[in-house]
Design a protein that fits this description.
Oligomer: single chain
Shape: rod-shaped
Number of strands: 3
């Protein structure tokens, strides 16, 4: 019986020693030595990602702004007002319908001619 007791005691001592070694090994891990380090690393990662997202958004805004300026320039070039500024005029009837052809007018029609600096009424003779 004493033989079993000794074996049991030895086995228990080994088990306790093994658990103590495991405990010490766990306690030497960085997470137990510096518990906030992992959190701080995550904050740094989040900060980097936020900066990347801000840069992406700013670049997208800048690109869209450039595209918008290009489109506005194209639209401005096609503007009837730009055509008027070059010395042309725009003829409409009194209802505002654009006259596109000489066939659209006849004698005694009243028209409105629009120039870059204003408009005037005319009568076809």
């Amino acid at each position: 019986m004493e033989k079993y007791n000794n074996r049991f005691k030895n086995s228990l001592k080994k088990k306790i020693e093994l658990m103590r070694l495991r405990y010490e090994k766990c306690m030497t891990r960085r997470v137990f030595k510096e518990p906030l380090q992992k959190i701080n690393e995550r904050y740094i990662t989040i900060d980097m990602r936020v900066k990347q997202i801000k840069n992406l958004i700013n670049n997208k805004i800048k690109d869209d702004k450039t595209k918008m300026i290009e489109l506005i320039t194209k639209l401005d070039t096609l503007s009837p007002l730009k055509t008027l500024a070059r010395g042309y005029s725009l003829a409409t009837d009194v209802k505002g319908k654009v006259i596109g052809s000489v066939k659209d007018v006849k004698k005694d029609d009243e028209l409105i001619l629009r120039f870059k600096d204003g408009k005037t009424n005319v009568k076809v003779i």
